[in-house]
Each structure stands twice: as structure tokens, then as C-alpha cells.
Amino acid sequence: MKKASVLNVLNELPREFSFDDFLERLIVIEKIEVGMKESKEGKTVSHENAKKMIAKWLK
């Protein structure tokens, strides 16, 4: 995660906020960044494969 991302989250929060709210937003941003990177690298699962995997989990 880049420092700029942290500063953007911090600047978007209200004047008073809980640390939990701040941390939750940072976690979401990081997960999105990781997902976008993996997508660009072709590390994805097709919709059909995802459906098959979920079907196995639900058995």
C-alpha cells in the first residue's frame, strides 16, 4: 500500500473517527489493490470454475 492511499483515506474521514473505522477502510483499500494487481496478472478464476468450486463447498 502506498502512503498516498493512507493519506487519502485519512483525509476522507470526518474530523473525529474511530481507529476501527480507519483500519477497516485501509483493509478494504488494500484488498481492492491486491485484487486489481492479481487481475492484471491474469490470476483470476472464470465464472464457470467459481460455480463448480462453490458447488463442491456446498455439498
If helices are DSSP runs of H or I spanning 4 or more residues, what is the number of helices?
3
Shape: elongated
Q: Could you say how many structural domains there are in total?
A: 1
User: What is the oligomeric state here?
Assistant: single chain
Helical fraction equals: over 70%
Low-confidence stretches: none
First and last CA, distance: 38 Å
Structure description:
The chain has helices at residues 3-12, 19-40, 47-57. The chain has one domain (3-57). The N and C termini lie far apart (38 Å). The longest helix has 22 residues, at 19-40. By secondary structure, the chain is mostly helical.
Please give a handful of descriptors for the protein shown.
mainly alpha
List the helices and strands and how they pair.
Layout (H helix, E strand, L loop, with lengths): L2 H10 L6 H22 L6 H11 L2
Helix pairs in contact: 1-2
Q: What's the quick description here?
A:
With 59 residues, the protein is an all-alpha fold. The chain has helices at residues 3-12, 19-40, 47-57. It has one domain.
